Amino acid sequence: MFEAQEAKHVHNIAQLTKRWQRTHRLTAAARRVLVNEITTLFEFKPGVVVVAEPLQPLSRQPVAELVDSSTYSKEELNAAIGHVIHILGLIVHYLGVKLPFVFFHKGISPYIRSASIRSRQQSRMPLFLDNKNLKRFTIGMAMLNYDIGYLCHTQGVDIPLHQIPNTLQGLMACCQSSGLGV
What we know:
Elements lengths: L1 H40 L8 E6 L6 E3 L9 H22 L5 E6 L2 E6 L5 H4 L1 E2 L7 H21 L12 H9 L7
Antiparallel strand pairs: 1-2, 3-4, 4-5
Helix pairs in contact: 1-2, 4-5
Keywords: Coiled coil
InterPro entries: UV_resistance/autophagy_Atg14
Pfam families: ATG14
């Protein structure tokens, strides 16, 4: 009698495991579809600013060049960062990932802060650039890039430390991960 009940429980556990695995696969597929739709909605395409001229010796690879943000107006820069915040917020919502730093708005201005610090006033950093907050803005962007690196890690994407500042490349690598949503 005891063996029959045990066999029944083993069978029930096996059936439950099969259903859970199927649900997990469907959920992961749905998450991938949602993230792909976000990337098309924002016209999010991979790319690097490339210098047309010199090639690396012996490698025949174009040299990537850093973009000088001082050539763009603060409004353009802040709008682009706003889009990154928006897309990142949607992606983490769809994937169900809790980031180490959280975004919030005070009025129309976006900020980022640690999710664990109690003194929220002192830990918030602006994610907008104005004439007097360059140092705090730089820290805020580092926090944003850390969040993107963390998101990549949760999705099985390895971002080398020296590439963490490449905000859009990190986000795109995450969105193209084969393990996205798993």
